[in-house]
Write a structure and sequence with these properties.
The complex is a heterodimer of chains A (759) and B (51). With 759 residues, chain A is an alpha/beta fold. Chain A contains 25 helices and 17 strands. In chain B, strands 1-2 form a two-stranded antiparallel sheet. Chain B is built from 2 helices and 2 strands, in the order αββα. Classes of the chains: A alpha/beta (759), B alpha+beta (51). Bound molecules: zinc ion.
């Protein structure tokens, strides 16, 4: 006779047969078979099985559950047995995740980030601050919940064991990744941030301020980076407004001085108005004949002789231009400062922001591009390099690529700035897979990138809207490619089979997540959808489901470690042997074809991503080393190589690296980037720098940037390469310099605003 | 503060700031990177521009 049982936590409690019957009945109901009497019969059978097995000893709860499974099978309730087994497994998973969760929270709460890899997973969150730690605890809780309750068991297993990595898993149940914010559409007639309504801006300063607010507001609705695809075109409208009002002000001033009359404002405004009626709005470069007409109107309205009036108009134009240039620089400087100091998301993280520009050839657009580059070049208050936003320069033949192109001077300037500040990066509109979408005069068809590489352009869901603006990635999951290769032990056919299976698994998981995202309503995304930032969301009401409009976004399958994959399969990577390059392109081409086929099948945008490896490359490698040991060229480092890159440690020339990586850009339509590493001296050579950018363009790279060391001594303000000693003040790291030496430096470098680090 | 102690303080304990790009983002110090990314940065070799 059983009297007591042992619970999981070791407590001994009275035995109750009714409880077994109830659990059985619950399972029966779930599978739609059996009655109350059947449940009682099974419970009875369980009891006698327990008695014969345990005798007088109190049984463990696990044993009782095993018996329930067994007796359900005996009594031919097969479906009920299955649902009972699944129920048990789910409960076990939930329990285990709770235990892991508590350990994780313990680590977050009590360990210093220096000692905790976990806390340094995302380099942009400071896990040592209260808000940063709170953010990490929240993320850990969300992850545990998502794994236990939202993932299918096969997806949870793949994620847990490192076959795949579901990115931004903490946000799995909540939102989507990123958007290209079309600021022109957003600013038109003003917008609401949720904390108040902002009128349509009227000057370049307020355009720039609102651009920063737009990024911050949208950041609260999504977990990824935020980007502006048309920074130059958008800000140009603000420049135009500033110029018009400055011109009127300056003309009023010079006319007032000339006539020695302070009451001329209304007449001057009238003269300008009359001119604009026939010649269109005044601008940095007004319509031909504008100034002549204005001169005549000044005579009509105020009786100023035409030669004098012409002189006054010219002077006003010069002064307004100078003032507008100055205002634009300050606006750009403010914008960059703003994005570097602004916090969002519980105060722990600076928004991940990007701005794209380079192709607006109007004088206003050019003024924006020039000044944002100059602000970037100047750096922050003490000359520090700006971490945000990411600047992306759009390169296009006929616009800025060749000598004689209208913005060629700005392309050159961008190279000079990037050689000093690491930004801008370059996106290449002429690469065939970008060019095919490009329509002159429609900037929304120009490729733009966001964050570290994401790109959205083609649109299977709605082929009439193959544009960059107002769209973005919904979610992405990366495949551990080297794992598949290691499991295949050199068997290519087996590898490809495993790859196909894994692609299918990830596609299903992305669709599962889409289902969660699609059920959200407009009010769940108050800015992104509520303010119409996302494509077609302006056609929805606040309680509408976002399902259909979300389909403009992409579901992306990523991968890392092509180099290690090739080495595991064939013994060499794609930089070491041209035959391996062919194999590499076959593998990645196969993945792309899967995405294209799946897109057609679902009429949704499945795209292939060259995953930026933050957080996961170390984890995959660690797990694979535990399983397969230390394999040279595969698991013998702490990380897997970023996407299709030539390994960072592999000695290779810049041009050859670009040549090898370029064909993969065409395949990875969700996003890609190639890097070239230069030493400090080469980077300072702007000609050499530009040659590398040109090589990227000519080889068909989609997105590229050049890395070089950028160091700064906060004591003397030197920015450049610093080895052991600072080239300017001669001190070593942490070393003090004398007061006399400091006085010498201040005399010698008067342009440095402040020498910091000393109180 | 005496002149002597002030002299000793100018820059004492102040390190150099080293900006690096990690998965597309710039980072001011390497303290906050995870171990694998630190290793990756350490292993990077420069690419020659000789054709
Ligand atoms: Zn120095």
């Amino acid at each position: 006779m059983i009297q007591m049982i042992i619970k999981r936590d070791g407590r001994i409690v009275p035995y109750d047969r009714e409880k077994i019957a109830l659990a059985v009945l619950r399972a029966m109901k779930a599978s739609g078979e059996g009655t109350v009497a059947d449940a009682a019969r099974v419970a009875e059978a369980v009891e006698s099985a327990l008695e014969s097995r345990c005798g007088a000893e109190p049984p463990q709860i696990e044993v009782i559950q095993d018996m329930v499974e067994q007796e359900l099978m005996h009594h031919e309730f097969t479906n009920t047995a299955k649902s009972y087994i699944i129920y048990r497994a789910t409960r076990t998973r939930a329990r285990e995740s709770r235990t892991t969760l508590m350990k994780t929270i313990d680590e977050i709460a009590s360990k210093d980030a220096k000692l905790s890899d976990l806390k340094r997973e995302n380099g942009n969150i400071d896990g040592d601050t209260a808000m940063g730690a709170m953010l990490q605890i929240g993320a850990a809780g969300a992850k545990a919940y998502n794994e236990a309750y939202l993932l299918r068991p096969e997806h949870a297993k793949a994620q847990r064991e490192g076959d795949i990595h579901i990115h931004d898993f903490d946000f799995y149940a909540l939102t989507t990744t990123c958007t290209q914010i079309d600021i022109i559409r957003l600013f038109k007639d003003g917008f609401s941030t949720g904390h108040g309504f902002l009128r349509e801006p009227q000057s370049i300063q307020s355009y720039a301020a609102l651009a920063a607010i737009a990024i911050q507001s949208n950041q609260n609705d999504q977990h990824g980076g935020q980007s502006i695809p048309n920074f130059d075109y958008g800000m140009a409208l603000g420049v135009a407004k500033t110029f018009r009002s400055q011109f009127r002000k300056k003309l009023t001033d010079v006319v007032a001085d000339h006539l020695d009359d302070d009451e001329v404002e209304a007449q001057v405004a009238k003269a300008i108005e009359m001119t604009e009626v026939s010649f269109g709005q005044n601008a940095l470069e007004p319509a031909e004949g504008f100034d002549g007409a204005l001169t005549r109107h000044l005579y009509e309205v105020l009786g100023i002789e035409s030669d004098v009036a012409a002189h006054l108009v010219a002077r006003a134009r010069r002064r307004a231009e100078t003032q507008t240039e100055r205002d634009t620089y300050q606006a750009m400087e403010g914008f960059v400062h703003n994005l570097n100091t602004m916090h969002s998301r519980a105060g722990a993280q600076t928004p991940f922001s990007s701005i794209n520009y380079g192709t607006d050839t109007t004088p206003e657009g050019r003024m924006v591009i020039r000044n944002v580059l100059l602000a970037l070049d100047a750096g922050l208050g003490h000359g520090e390099t700006c971490i945000f936003p990411i600047h992306i320069f759009k390169v296009k033949e006929g616009v800025n690529y060749n000598e004689g192109d209208p913005n060629y001077d700005l392309f050159r300037l961008s190279c000079k700035v990037s050689a000093k500040r690491l930004f801008p990066n370059y996106v290449f509109l002429d690469s065939p897979y970008n060019l095919k979408y490009y329509v002159p005069g429609r900037p929304e068809t120009e490729v733009a990138t966001m964050g570290c590489r994401t790109r959205v352009l083609g649109n299977v869901y709605d082929p009439t809207q193959e544009i960059s603006y107002s769209r973005g990635n919904l979610s992405f999951t990366s495949i551990n490619l080297p794992r598949l290769a290691l499991e295949s032990k050199g068997d290519e056919a087996l590898f490809l089979k495993k790859l196909d299976d894994m692609l299918e698994l990830v596609a299903q998981q992305l669709l599962d997540r889409f289902e969660i995202q699609a059920k959200k309503r407009v009010y769940n995304y108050p800015f992104l959808m509520g303010q119409g930032v996302w494509l077609d969301s302006d056609k929805l009401g606040p309680y509408d489901e976002v399902r259909e409009v979300l389909k403009h976004g992409t579901l992306s399958i990523g991968f890392i470690g092509l180099a290690e994959t090739l080495t595991a399969l064939y013994g060499k990577n794609h930089a070491e042997d041209p035959a391996m390059q062919e194999k590499g392109l076959e593998i990645i081409g196969r993945m792309r074809k899967f995405c294209d086929d799946k897109s057609q099948e679902m009429k949704m945008n499945f795209t292939l991503l060259a995953t930026p490896a933050e957080g996961l490359s170390g984890r995959f490698t660690r797990l694979d080393r535990q399983r397969y040991g230390r394999i040279p060229g595969v698991t013998d480092r702490e990380y897997y190589t970023n996407s299709f890159h030539v390994p960072v440690w592999y000695p290779i020339g810049a041009y050859e690296k670009i040549h090898i990586e370029a064909p993969y850009h065409a395949l990875c339509n969700a996003g890609h980037i190639s890097y070239v590493e230069l030493d400090g001296d080469t980077a300072k050579n702007v000609e050499a720098f530009e040659q590398i950018v040109r090589c990227m363009h000519d080889e068909g790279i989609g997105y590229g940037s050049i890395n070089h060391p950028v160091d700064r001594d906060p004591i003397c303000g030197y920015v450049g390469v610093i080895g052991d000693t600072c080239p300017r003040c001669g001190r070593r790291e942490g070393e003090a310099i004398s007061e006399e030496r400091m006085q010498e430096l201040i005399k010698k470098f008067p342009q440095i605003k402040a020498f910091v680090g000393i109180e | 503060m005496t002149v002597e102690s002030k002299q000793n303080k100018l820059g004492a304990g102040v390190g150099f700031e080293r900006i690096r790009r990690i998965t597309g983002y710039l980072v001011g110090t390497m303290d906050k990177w995870n171990d694998a990314k630190k290793a990756e940065e350490r292993d990077r070799v420069k690419h020659s521009i000789a054709k």
